Amino acid sequence: MEYTTITFETDADGIGVLTINRPDKLNALNADVIQELDACIAEIESRDEVKGVILTGAGSKSFVAGADIRQFTDLDPVQGYTFAQYGQRVFSRLEGLPKPVIAAVNGYALGGGCELAMACHLRVASELATFGQPEVNLGIIPGYGGTQRLPRLVGRGLALEMILTGEHVTARRAYEIGLVNKVVVPAELMSAARQMMQTILNKGPVAVALSLNAVHASDRPLDQGLEHEALLFGQACGTEDFKEGAAAFLERRKPAFVGR
Ligand code: COA
């Protein structure tokens, strides 16, 4: 599919780079971006050669500065509900991918941008990045998952502080509170994200997919999450990758995983 508001390129290692590409609007998420994101996630799901995805924003200033404010000024309650639901569905689809997704946060990650970064599995940030849920300044609330994913990542108190004050937090502060995994100088952002991705892609792909699936279930009550973990652990035990990984350890060599 031809994209106009995003770009998607895959390299020889199977790492796809998905870029939100509206730099003149600080990569704000309009309806076209959300639809193309949805289509691109379907493409990632269906293309076996895509092993993992790095998601970033075009330009040096912004990752994503939120949902496009021009597009939702006239929403009535029913349209607002539908608007939030569609974005949530797309972000949850991204989060549900069985392949690792790393946000490379290059600048403003505000509102829907912070929510998009949180729907990725891991976050690497430039030290110039800024995070925030400023929706209260507009008289609304986060609608693409912010009230749910932020407390899960940083705890309820800090999430409420960000959501109720609308204040931005620096990349360093985001690291301190567990909102991002790593902070690097701007010039090293993409190489740091690639390095983290490569480390993951060197592991058994089935184990990576099952780990994502199992940790995703950590939102469930503990007994259900543990049951789910046991089922997936059993599944992992039946793979060729497990036999190979264990044999390679005992033979003191690098494993050659086949992904099944
Ligand atoms: N929706 C639509 N357009 C946006 C946008 C958004 N969320 N964020 C930025 N833009 C647009 C601006 O309207 C401007 O467009 P224009 O040049 O056609 O006027 C362009 O992007 C550049 O933004 P500008 O505000 O001039 O840049 P700045 O450096 O002065 O400020 C921000 C940067 C991020 C602090 C500021 O743009 C901002 O606060 N954006 C909104 C953030 C927000 O509330 N997000 C949550 C939405 S629910």
Layout of secondary structure:
Blueprint: E1 6-10, E2 15-20, H1 31-46, E3 52-57, E4 62-64, H2 69-72, H3 77-95, E5 101-105, E6 108-110, H4 112-119, E7 122-126, E8 130-132, H5 146-154, H6 156-165, E9 169-170, H7 171-176, E10 182-184, H8 189-201, H9 205-216, H10 222-237, H11 240-250
Parallel strand pairs: 2-3, 3-5, 4-6, 5-7, 6-8, 7-10
Antiparallel strand pairs: 1-2, 8-9
Helix pairs in contact: 1-3, 4-5, 5-6, 9-10
Description:
With 260 residues, this protein is of the alpha/beta class. The chain has 11 helices and 10 strands. The protein has a 6-stranded mixed beta sheet, with helices on both faces. Strands 4-6-8-9 form a 4-stranded mixed beta sheet. It is globular, with a radius of gyration of 19 Å. The relative contact order is 0.11. The model has no long low-confidence stretch (mean pLDDT 97). Bound molecules: coenzyme A.
Rg: 19 Å
Largest sheet: 6 strands, mixed
Beta-sheet strand percentage? 15-25%
**Element pattern in H and E:** EEHEEHHEEHEEHHEHEHHHH
Query: What class would the helix/strand composition place it in?
Result: alpha/beta
The overall strand count is 10
Oligomer: single chain
- What compounds sit in this structure? coenzyme A
Strand arrangement in the largest pleated sheet: 1-2-3-5-7-10
**Shape, per Cα inertia axes:** globular
